[in-house]
Amino acid sequence: MSFNTIEINKQRQDLSGRESVWLFGYGSLIFKADFPYLERRPASIRGWARRFWQGSHDHRGTPESPGRVLTLVESPGTVCAGMAYRVAPAVFDHLDVREKNGYLRFSTPMAFSDGGHEEGLVYIATEDNAAFLGPASEAAIARQIATSRGESGPNRDYLFNLADALRHLGVEDQHIFTLEKLINI
Ligand code: SIN
């Protein structure tokens, strides 16, 4: 997949002059923090739901056989719990490469689990990106996750690591836990 969002993301927010920036992670950014951070706090955003609707041609699949990874879809009233990281602006150079397969940075209000609010950036793969796969039954999504693998390893590890991290945070997410059960049958 030649499409990538690195250059677009650089133009989206001007982070120059900022001492630090909050990042909200809801998928692999919860369980794989391969970047330096100044602070990490459980947090949530409102109005969005996690869905395995984004294709992965790099980390968890290949161009011929894409895996499925998470994006956020609009869902009024839904609270999406995840992890917030306070990072130096330069960390976005790394994150933009990691999230290059269709994700764009958006600004969002975040609520910390232990109180307080901040504005943060979140990577979302919207439905107009070239790698977007969209909805499918949970059985079909589970089958695709069970059989895909990419540079970062088996697609199923993405799901299992996330499910473990959510349990650890005390977060209930029906989509994630149903897929985990379907793959374990
Ligand atoms: C995220 O984790 O916040 C973005 C999607 C991903 O990298 O899995």
Automatic annotation (TrEMBL):
This is glutathione-specific gamma-glutamylcyclotransferase. The lineage of its organism: Bacteria, Pseudomonadati, Pseudomonadota, Gammaproteobacteria, Oceanospirillales. CDD domains: GGCT_like (cd06661). The keyword Protease does not apply. InterPro entries: ChaC, GGCT-like, GGCT-like_sf. Keywords: Lyase. Its EC number is 4.3.2.7.
